[in-house]
Amino acid sequence: MNTEMLLLWSDQLPVSLAVWLVLLVLAMYLGRSQAHLLIMSTSGAVRTLFRLAARSFNLLAMRLNSRNKEIILSHGRDAVEKKIEREFHRVNSLVKKDLSGYPAAQRKINDAIEKIEEDFSSSIEAPPLPPSWVEGVDTIAKTAKAADPTVTLILENINQSLTKAQKEALDEYRRSSQGRHEALKNMLPTWRNVSQQLSEINKNVDGIEGQAKVIDKHMQEYESIRNSEDTAVRKLLSSSVTQLFISGLVLIIAIMGGFINFQLIALPMSEMVGGTSQLGPMKTADVAALVIIMVEIAMGLFLMESLRITHLFPIISSMDDNMRKKMLIITLSILTILAGFEASLAYMRDLLALDREALTQSLAGSEIISAEFRWIPSVGQMVIGFILPFTLAFIAIPLESFIQSFRTVMGTAFCQLLQMIDVTFRMVGNIVQRCGHILIRVYDLIIFIPLEVENHLSGRKLKMDKIKIDKDAEVDQLPVLTEEKLS
Amino acid sequence: MKRFALLLSVVVIMLGGCNAEKPKTKSVYMLLDTSGTYTKELDKAQKIINYLLATLNSGDSLAVARIDSGSFSEKDIVSKVTFDTRPSVVSDQKRVFKRSIDNFISSVKSSSYTDITGGVLQASEFLNETRADEKIILVFSDLKEDLVKGHVRDFSIPLVDIKVVALNVTKLRSDNVDPRHYLNRVAKWQERVNQGGGKWLVLNDLERLERLIAG
User: Average pLDDT in the B156-172 region?
Assistant: First the structure.
């Protein structure tokens, strides 16, 4: 059928093809304006469609971004609030611990100062009063040169008495001076005590000043978050990514711990629930072991919540202290019971393994060898069985961190993805429009011969029209000139 | 709580996905030929039984019976057991089973005739009663049947979904003279088993038994 159509115009294929080509070009030339319109409108519609879709994705990305920002800031705000609260608690404890002794220290310093004052006042030197009878003695001494020996004797006696009195006075003065020196010497430890007390107070004040600086720093961070600054958002996001990786790593370690725990209790569990029964595709013993591990993790979560370390369950965090303490005791008790249960299961596993080993040796016909220090792995398994549940309890901390950071990081990643889709859609829309333009050019290229003919003819016609216009203008001008000349 | 429930379900699904295949229960019935000089081969059978004891698990069944003059009888079952669900009990059951087999092999006496068909029929009944997922009859014999006069055994044996494995089919002296005897014996049994709806296998190399049981 196709061959017949191809050879419709001539038996020779090239001739027939040439006729078809001419007809096609002619048809395309005739429908040129409609085809252009169709291509333009189609490419325009596709572009509009893509732009609309891009706009929708952009709006969604913006909304998501804003929501993410809110969440990031909210988490950041909570974290900084907690930090500030903790710093204030530290300051409070510092004030309570160190500055509570401040009045006593002040009293001590006051007492010391009083003592110093007393000592100081007692150490003031009192100059000896000049004797009032010095002038009288002087007069007698002057008269004494001319007096008789009796008077001289009397005077000598007086001289001796005076010398003695003077010596005694001098001794007394020396003694009192020594006393004052002693008092001044006694002041030294008191001074030292005062200095020590003051340096102690200074140190405490410095500590509080340091804490105040830390609080100031946190407050600045808090204000930056409250003002929704971009730097704060970027910082918090970067922190979230780090948190996600760290908590993810810890969770992987915890899952490995859980797997070891599972291996430890799955076999002995079959002793309790049977080794052949199935629960769906899994052995009931395996499910039971898994449930025990899950219960341990759940108890760990509740324990961490009760201790207010994590905040996954607001209902537990909002409980009053008594209730929370009760819950703490209950979860810890259950966890301890489960740990004991696991330790016994681990021991049972060891016994079963030993029994199986002995049986295998007996079936193989080899001699049953009882290994020395076989109790070490038994005890080791029991210890691991006891410790692992408590270790798994701490999974709550990285889990909370992982959930929070995962929400933030995934939200941001999804937002980036939406923005990428937005850009891609815009690009595709523009490409489609450009393709429309190129198609029009290609279309014109195919029918370039009739187009050229058309251009040529229209150019000639234009030329002819111009000549005609010029001629008409000349004709029109002639009578005017004649009339002008005539006039 | 929603988050935790989601996490729990994910973990359960993941672990479930890791162990999606349900373990199949096996039931093995081993027939020991005690006719003529074949009793000398029983130490090999003992090793096979020990291997089976080491391989079979909770829920599996194992029975060992002798082939004598009239084997279609409960009396010919030397020992049978269905392993308990508890691993510790399974070990005890295996020990008891091993002891009974050891006693049997140390005190076995040759029988005058060889009723393999009766033994296979008895095995088929036992295996069907166990309702195991995989049923295997191990025939430890040279497959030369020698019936007591008057015993009728030329009928089809119901062996639907049962694998019949001939082990240690030793070549008789006459087989060496004319190997077609051996081939005919094996072919005859294959035909009978296939007629009964079973699957026939010959394992002269006992190393391959591992693949059969483990597979």
Answer: 85
